[in-house]
Amino acid sequence: MRDRPLVWVAFALLLGLGALPAGCSGGDDQALRAPPQEDGPPPPTYNRFIRPDTGEFWDSYGAWDNRAISDEEKAKSPWYNPRWAPFSKCMAGAGFETRKDRSLPFAQADLAGLVTQVNAARPDRVANKAIGQNVKVGGIGEAFLVCAEKWLALPIEELAANGLRALKPGEVPEP
Fold first, then answer.
1. Distance set, CA 66 to CA 38, 69, 81, 117, 140 (Å)
2. What is the pTM of this model?
3. 55: which of 66, 72, 75, 125 fits an S-S bond (Cβ 3.0–4.6 Å)?
4. Rounded distance, CA 26 to CA 157, Å?
């Protein structure tokens, strides 16, 4: 019973110390930061469409249709990502047709096939790991990175601003 006031004092002290930096003005923030280290290794290169562990190109967002239903049910009522059509048009505009059948809309299988093509065209996984954002690599690899960054990475909140809307499962977009 006698130790409880000390616990409360310690608790209040910790709370006060934790809140102190939030209440300070930002005038002296620079003095608290460590100077930049110029002799250390550079930060690792990162590109969200290249696996950092393997150097393979990939759709880092994974399968769009992750509903807990069978593949047969998904085939009966496919769910299209609204970003896929402009991504496919971007790839075609760069000279790379991405669909096996042009009469059908771009689908998950087309994206998987495209990733396979890109990986076949860029087999040097070590070199791929060194590709950062907005780096020119040429060919299908560059087209994939540019178009994926523009369309596949588009946040859902920005769909409407880019003339897109979320599609419902079973709703088939224009090819």
1. 44, 8, 11, 24, 27
2. 0.72
3. 125
4. 32
Asked whether the beta carbons of 164 and 82 are under 8 A apart, the reply is yes
Q: Which long-range contacts (CB under 8 A, 24 or more apart) does 44-52 make?
A: 45/129, 45/130, 45/131, 45/132, 46/132, 46/133, 47/131, 47/132, 47/133, 47/135, 47/145, 48/149, 48/153, 49/144, 49/145, 49/148, 49/149, 49/152, 50/128, 50/129, 50/131, 52/129
